[in-house]
Amino acid sequence: MKTKSVCLTACLMIAIGAFSQTSDTLLKSSAGQPKIPDSLISILTLQKDIPDSLLQRFKIQTEVPDTSSRQLIAQYKSSDTLKGQKGPDSKPSEAKAPVKKYDKRWNISPLLKFQAQDFGMLEKRRMGYLSDAHTLSFTDRSTLSLAASVYKNFSGHLSMSLDIGAGSGRVTDKNAPISQAQKRFYGVGTATMYLHLLGGQYRLQPFIAAGINYMMGDGAYMSAPVGAGVKFTSKKIMIEGQAAQGYAISKNIANTMMYSVGAYIPLKRKKDDEESSNRKDSGNTKNITNITNNYYLLNADSLKKAAADSAKLAEEQLKKKREEDANKILDPDDPMNLPAAVKEIVYFNYDQYSLTSAAFGSIDQVIKKLKDNPILNVHLKGYTDLSGSEQYNSALSRRRAQMVFDYMNSRGIPAERMIMSGYGKNNPAIASNDPGTAWMNRRCEIVIFEKR
Length: 452
What we know:
The chain has 452 residues and is of the alpha+beta class. It is built from eight helices and 15 strands. It starts with a helix and ends with a strand.
């Protein structure tokens, strides 16, 4: 008999260990509470004493709240290391930065952009043997200038620069050789658009460019340079150089070859510093969780009564929840509370409110539903990630909702069928500034509901 008791106790301890490891897979009741399987109850009723830890696993209140009257038969301690503050002797790990799509900073060149317009290069082709440009030095047949410049990337492939400066040299038209022109001082202004052939994540980017060049001296001279070049970008400097042919727009200037090279200083943005700080903090922390499992012995009758009480409590909670849902007053300011409301979500790039190609596809599906069913309306709810100030993010979230509103309106959805709101960084989908998941907060929710 003693041997049987020992065997039954050993089997019981094995069952406890198995259930402590697999409790997450146990069935749940309709109220969300863990449900005790009937097979477990039938097995444990054969034993006189039941481990109290099993009752605590199912959050069951027993008739014996005082653990001092129970016998502690086993104790197991363990630690799980997740992430938290590292020790002073530990080696800091580098947080992985997200792949940068393109440089969003403004770049300033304070009189560090050099430009030369060579009129002699094309003169031989234009005037033939009448040209004597080959006898002149480069400086004698060109206009040289220095300019202050500002440069901005608008996407991974499109950017623009504006230059204002001054220079001196010779300018001629298509009917006169450059050797007959007099040297003068000129004011120079240039606007150039760049199309990058590689994505913005590459430091070295070849490009093609087109723009407008304007010089003011004894007259106004306008030409349109079209050419190609290369740009190098780093954290502290950007260098850009190009060669182009300037096609004459005004009649008092000839076609010319134009060369330019400039060094730019990137301006830091507040959001860049915040993202860098968040990545650094996330890479230097870890949490340590200590787990202690205590095993007690308890009479099996308590388990039966507790199981019955738990089932009764779950049924009462479910009934109460159904009554609350039936009496709930619908809030017209939150259409998701309305019957049959559904939600579509479109996402935005970091610090941007322009629609992506994926967003257009999702919005077009919503537009089709609204056109097919005239009783449907939409609520456009704009959000941002958790970085940046409340004031900045509130305005950005409204712009995102407004962008969806304008596109749907341009596709034939009347304004009176749309509600628009901006919530800034409130109600985040992910309560974290981790660059790997923060994109899920940069969104606009399109709530489709029936007009009441």
